[in-house]
């Protein structure tokens, strides 16, 4: 399991691994927003938590199809499915590797981009904390979507169509927590809900995703 | 005699060919009576005027939008646990009907909302929930279309339906948390706290029954088509082999 | 027995392609599957490996018994030979990769990324992966594709060593490996006859019978 985690992280950070692409995408999306809505600081400050959450979500989406599709292409997925580690574990570990190489960097980059969007002083902690709690759910749900579409030649677009509706609760609670934090309100409830979604996803989705992979491999 | 006998394609084809005309007939009668009664023989609402009459389409279609997904959830579970092909084909058949019901509910809602709230659309929890439900239907149908092998597609869509149901419920509560809305409370409820008066309710019950029957008729019809399509596919495959 | 099947039937795309296959593989035995393209060698091997369920019948394997190698080698292009092997060894709970590198003559290539290997070298690396699994039964699908004569001999030698150590191999291949002890199983007799209308794997046939 540890070997798989290390391998996936190593693959992501090697040339052509796509590490950094999501980050760059996140940066560009955030930079584009002021061009769209205007440079007025008050407006930007109000929408900053939401924009950063949507941006992080879209950047995360970008790299989802790599989770299983590459392993499927080179035959590794067949071999992993016949290996002595349970497929549920493979899914969980690969989702974790995806989070470490995508969700975590996005979380760390968000405060920097928050400066660009004039995010109020009080909002930084809550934004980072909500992303830290919520992005693992994004990776896990995404891994489930990737498992569903792993057998398809052009699965990328379908993957987005399947995953985005599943992202809605995470986005609502995450952005709400960040927004309330930025406005100086108590954000305990949405944060708890967010943590609940993450915990629930990690507990249940590896089984669903492993089932989907088995179906796709046969 | 157990209910599982109807999961046998032969039994299903026999029973449905007998039942389909009856269900269709009853659906037409219930819908026509309910709609004519509701549109022409009920008084205008003292606040909402005649616009209230869209309730006879809006409420039943909204109800069926949710019930269709619930039915898909049950039939998907039956497929995953007992591997009855008819069950999952019924789920496949129900999806576009459910999606259409969702669309009807959204459109009639917009038409009703415009004179009442002065806006076609508001990010009200109920409206938003239906929009999200529509997205779930879209994903489910798209996955069926994308996967070539029918049994693989059946398994994958069933897993999606299961997981989707959990997340659809989560979305429902998330949306309630996110925005308190304009929408009135439930039109009908069993505890009689606050709902429409009996004058409006009676034809409404009738149109709801009509929508249920219409849904059953359409699902039966589409499931029969799906069974025939699968049979055709199997025959073609065998011909290629021979 | 390292593998037994009982009246196994397998299907591809909803159609029965092999039926009534009962076989047993004992330690030290090598079994070569023969048959024309499309007869179901790959599907059979995937079924035995547990990647797809049999249409009928049963496959019995001791737990953690088999290692499967398909058409694709499961190599990561950006990882080196050593990294690729170390990963698979770790997955199977093994630590020693030196023997596998020596057996497949990869000693000069250990630090090269897999993307810089030739097709034959990649295949050798893929076969070296089998050696680090420590499994007793090998399920091999066309193991000698893109190997030159010397490498085929190398592979045959590896199989022989494996058999001598109490292992067994079941492989689909068209070329002669020079393994005198290998038995040949022709799959042609297990092809199902044309099924009568309303039978076979079509679950909807009976609806119209």
In brief:
Helix content of chain B is 78%, strand content 0%. Chain B has 242 residues and is mostly helical. Chain C is of the alpha/beta class and 209 residues long.
Radius of gyration of chain B: 20 Å
Q: From the helix content, strand content and strand pairing of chain B, which structural class follows?
A: mainly alpha
- Secondary-structure element string of chain C: EEEHEEHHHEHEE
Oligomer: heterotrimer
Shape of chain C: globular
Secondary-structure class of chain C = alpha/beta
Query: Distance between the terminal alpha carbons of chain C, to the nearest Å?
Result: 43 Å
Low-confidence stretches of chain B: none
Terminal CA distance of chain B: 39 Å
Spatial strand arrangement across the major sheet of chain C: 5-6-7-3-8
The beta-strand count of chain B equals 0
| Major sheet description of chain B | none
| Overall average pLDDT of chain B | 86
**Tally of DSSP helical segments of chain B:** 6
Order of helices and strands of chain B: HHHHHH
Beta fraction of the residues of chain B?
A: under 5%
What's the helical proportion of residues of chain C? Answer: 25-40%
Number of contiguous helices of chain C: 5
What percentage of residues of chain B falls in helices of 4 or more residues? Answer: over 70%
How many beta strands in the DSSP annotation of chain C?
Answer: 8
Task: Give the mean pLDDT of chain C.
Answer: 84
How is this structure best described in words?
The complex is a heterotrimer of chains A (218), B (242) and C (209). Chain A is an all-alpha fold and 218 residues long. Chain B is an all-alpha fold and 242 residues long. Chain B is 78% helix and 0% strand. Chain C is of the alpha/beta class and 209 residues long. The N and C termini of chain C lie far apart (43 Å). The interface between A and B is medium-sized, with 30 and 27 residues.
């Amino acid at each position: 399991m540890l070997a798989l985690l290390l391998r996936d992280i190593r693959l992501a950070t090697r040339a052509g691994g796509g590490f950094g692409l999501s980050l760059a995408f996140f940066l560009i999306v955030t930079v584009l927003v002021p061009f769209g809505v205007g440079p007025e600081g008050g407006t930007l400050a109000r929408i900053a938590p939401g924009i950063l959450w949507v941006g992080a979500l879209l950047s995360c989406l970008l790299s989802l199809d790599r989770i299983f599709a590459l392993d499927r292409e080179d035959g590794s997925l067949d071999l992993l499915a016949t290996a002595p580690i349970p497929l549920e574990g493979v899914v969980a570990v690969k989702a974790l590797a995806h989070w470490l190489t995508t969700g975590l960097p996005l979380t760390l980059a968000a405060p920097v981009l928050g400066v660009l969007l004039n995010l109020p002083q009080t909002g930084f902690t809550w934004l980072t904390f909500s992303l830290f709690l919520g992005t693992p759910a994004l990776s896990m749900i995404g891994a489930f979507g990737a498992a569903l579409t792993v057998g398809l030649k052009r699965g990328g677009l379908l993957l987005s169509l399947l995953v985005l509706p599943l992202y809605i609760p995470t986005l609502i609670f995450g952005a709400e927590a960040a927004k309330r934090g930025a406005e100086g309100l108590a954000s305990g409830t949405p944060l708890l809900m967010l943590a609940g979604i993450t915990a629930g996803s990690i507990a249940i989705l590896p089984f669903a995703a492993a089932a989907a992979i088995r179906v796709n491999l046969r | 005699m157990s209910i599982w006998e109807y999961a046998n394609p032969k039994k299903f084809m026999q029973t449905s060919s007998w039942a389909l005309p009856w269900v269709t007939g009853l659906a037409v009668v219930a819908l026509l009576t309910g709609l004519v009664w509701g549109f022409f023989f009920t008084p205008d609402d003292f606040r909402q005027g005649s616009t209230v009459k869209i309730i006879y389409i809006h409420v039943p279609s909204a109800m069926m939008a949710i019930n269709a997904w619930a039915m898909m959830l049950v039939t998907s579970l039956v497929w995953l646990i007992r591997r009855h092909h008819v069950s999952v084909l019924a789920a496949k058949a129900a999806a576009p009907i459910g999606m259409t019901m969702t669309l009807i509910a959204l459109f009639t809602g917009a038409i009703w909302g415009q004179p009442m709230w002065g806006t076609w659309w508001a990010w009200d929890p109920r409206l938003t929930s239906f929009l999200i439900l529509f997205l779930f239907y879209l994903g489910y149908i798209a996955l069926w279309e994308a996967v070539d092998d029918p049994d693989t597609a059946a398994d994958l869509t069933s897993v999606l339906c299961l997981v989707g149901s959990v997340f659809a419920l989560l979305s429902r509560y998330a949306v309630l948390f996110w925005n308190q809305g304009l929408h009135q409370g439930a039109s009908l409820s069993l505890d009689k706290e606050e709902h429409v008066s009996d004058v409006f309710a009676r034809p409404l019950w009738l149109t709801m029954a009509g929508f249920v029957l219409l849904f059953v008729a359409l699902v039966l019809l589409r499931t029969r088509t799906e069974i025939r399509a699968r049979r055709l596919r199997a025959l073609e495959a065998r011909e290629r082999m021979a | 027995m390292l593998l037994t099947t009982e009246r196994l039937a397998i299907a591809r795309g909803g159609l029965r392609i092999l039926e009534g296959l009962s076989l047993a593989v004992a330690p030290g035995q090598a079994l070569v599957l023969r048959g024309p393209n499309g007869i179901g060698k790959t599907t059979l091997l995937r079924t035995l490996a547990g990647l797809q369920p049999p249409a009928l019948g049963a496959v019995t394997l001791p737990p953690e018994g088999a290692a499967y190698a398909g058409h694709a080698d499961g190599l990561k292009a950006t990882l080196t030979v050593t990294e690729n092997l170390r990963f698979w060894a770790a997955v199977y709970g093994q630590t020693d990769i030196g023997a596998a590198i020596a057996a497949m003559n990869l000693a000069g290539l250990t630090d090269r990324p897999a993307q810089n290997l030739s097709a034959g070298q990649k295949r050798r690396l893929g076969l070296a992966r089998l050696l680090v699994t420590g499994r007793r039964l090998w399920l091999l699908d066309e193991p000698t594709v893109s190997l030159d004569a010397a490498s085929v001999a190398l592979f045959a030698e590896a199989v022989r060593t494996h058999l001598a150590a109490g292992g067994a191999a079941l492989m689909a291949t068209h070329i002669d490996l020079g393994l005198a002890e290998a038995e040949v199983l022709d799959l042609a007799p297990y092809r199902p006859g044309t099924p009568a209308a309303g039978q076979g794997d079509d679950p909807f046939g009976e609806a119209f019978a």
